[in-house]
Amino acid sequence: MNDSLGKVVRKARLARGLTQEQLAELIGIDQRTILNIENHKGNPKFELLFPLVRTLKIDPSEIFYPELQDNKPSLRQLQALLADCSEDEAQDLLALCQSALPIFRARKAK
Prior knowledge:
Layout: H1 2-15, H2 20-27, H3 31-38, H4 46-56, H5 60-64, H6 73-83, H7 87-109
Helix pairs in contact: 2-3
Protein backbone atom coordinates (compact mmCIF):
# COMPACT_ATOMS: atom_id res chain seq x y z
CA MET A 1 0.00 0.00 0.00
CA ASN A 2 2.84 2.45 0.70
CA ASP A 3 3.85 2.72 -2.93
CA SER A 4 0.36 3.35 -4.28
CA LEU A 5 -0.54 5.66 -1.37
CA GLY A 6 2.46 7.89 -1.99
CA LYS A 7 1.74 8.15 -5.70
CA VAL A 8 -1.96 8.81 -5.17
CA VAL A 9 -1.35 11.46 -2.51
CA ARG A 10 1.23 13.30 -4.61
CA LYS A 11 -1.00 13.19 -7.70
CA ALA A 12 -4.06 14.46 -5.79
CA ARG A 13 -2.08 17.15 -3.99
CA LEU A 14 -0.60 18.47 -7.23
CA ALA A 15 -3.96 18.30 -9.00
CA ARG A 16 -5.35 20.62 -6.32
CA GLY A 17 -2.37 22.96 -6.61
CA LEU A 18 -1.23 22.40 -3.04
CA THR A 19 2.29 22.32 -1.70
CA GLN A 20 3.22 19.74 0.90
CA GLU A 21 3.28 22.54 3.46
CA GLN A 22 -0.21 23.76 2.53
CA LEU A 23 -1.62 20.24 2.72
CA ALA A 24 0.04 19.65 6.08
CA GLU A 25 -1.51 22.87 7.41
CA LEU A 26 -4.95 21.90 6.13
CA ILE A 27 -4.98 18.63 8.03
CA GLY A 28 -2.95 19.81 11.02
CA ILE A 29 0.20 17.73 10.68
CA ASP A 30 3.88 18.29 10.06
CA GLN A 31 5.03 18.81 6.46
CA ARG A 32 7.60 16.06 6.95
CA THR A 33 4.77 13.57 7.37
CA ILE A 34 3.45 14.43 3.90
CA LEU A 35 6.98 14.15 2.52
CA ASN A 36 7.37 10.70 4.10
CA ILE A 37 4.03 9.46 2.75
CA GLU A 38 4.85 10.65 -0.76
CA ASN A 39 8.29 9.04 -0.54
CA HIS A 40 6.77 5.72 0.55
CA LYS A 41 8.18 5.80 4.09
CA GLY A 42 6.04 4.48 6.91
CA ASN A 43 2.39 3.55 7.20
CA PRO A 44 0.10 6.37 8.30
CA LYS A 45 -2.47 5.52 10.94
CA PHE A 46 -6.16 5.77 10.15
CA GLU A 47 -6.36 9.00 12.15
CA LEU A 48 -4.11 10.58 9.50
CA LEU A 49 -5.22 8.62 6.45
CA PHE A 50 -8.87 9.57 6.84
CA PRO A 51 -8.41 13.39 6.79
CA LEU A 52 -5.77 13.06 4.07
CA VAL A 53 -8.12 11.13 1.79
CA ARG A 54 -11.03 13.45 2.57
CA THR A 55 -9.06 16.68 2.13
CA LEU A 56 -7.60 15.58 -1.20
CA LYS A 57 -10.91 13.99 -2.29
CA ILE A 58 -9.15 10.73 -3.10
CA ASP A 59 -11.28 7.78 -4.15
CA PRO A 60 -10.23 5.11 -1.59
CA SER A 61 -10.17 2.49 -4.34
CA GLU A 62 -7.17 4.34 -5.81
CA ILE A 63 -5.25 3.35 -2.68
CA PHE A 64 -6.67 -0.08 -1.95
CA TYR A 65 -7.30 -1.29 -5.52
CA PRO A 66 -4.73 0.52 -7.70
CA GLU A 67 -4.98 -2.18 -10.39
CA LEU A 68 -8.52 -1.05 -11.17
CA GLN A 69 -7.57 2.55 -11.89
CA ASP A 70 -6.60 2.13 -15.53
CA ASN A 71 -9.93 0.60 -16.52
CA LYS A 72 -12.23 3.64 -16.51
CA PRO A 73 -10.47 6.92 -15.67
CA SER A 74 -13.31 9.11 -16.99
CA LEU A 75 -15.83 7.25 -14.87
CA ARG A 76 -13.62 7.79 -11.82
CA GLN A 77 -13.47 11.51 -12.58
CA LEU A 78 -17.25 11.66 -12.81
CA GLN A 79 -17.59 9.86 -9.49
CA ALA A 80 -15.24 12.35 -7.84
CA LEU A 81 -17.22 15.28 -9.24
CA LEU A 82 -20.49 13.77 -8.07
CA ALA A 83 -19.13 13.30 -4.57
CA ASP A 84 -18.89 17.10 -4.31
CA CYS A 85 -22.48 17.72 -5.43
CA SER A 86 -25.37 18.66 -3.22
CA GLU A 87 -28.42 16.40 -3.30
CA ASP A 88 -30.27 18.95 -5.46
CA GLU A 89 -27.38 19.12 -7.91
CA ALA A 90 -27.18 15.33 -8.02
CA GLN A 91 -30.90 15.09 -8.79
CA ASP A 92 -30.58 17.61 -11.62
CA LEU A 93 -27.52 15.82 -13.02
CA LEU A 94 -29.29 12.47 -12.78
CA ALA A 95 -32.20 13.78 -14.85
CA LEU A 96 -29.77 15.26 -17.37
CA CYS A 97 -27.84 11.99 -17.66
CA GLN A 98 -31.01 9.95 -18.03
CA SER A 99 -32.04 12.21 -20.93
CA ALA A 100 -28.61 12.34 -22.59
CA LEU A 101 -27.52 8.69 -22.34
CA PRO A 102 -29.99 7.33 -24.92
CA ILE A 103 -28.77 9.97 -27.39
CA PHE A 104 -25.11 9.07 -26.81
CA ARG A 105 -25.84 5.37 -27.09
CA ALA A 106 -27.84 5.78 -30.28
CA ARG A 107 -25.01 7.78 -31.85
CA LYS A 108 -22.48 5.16 -30.82
CA ALA A 109 -24.60 2.37 -32.29
CA LYS A 110 -24.47 3.98 -35.75
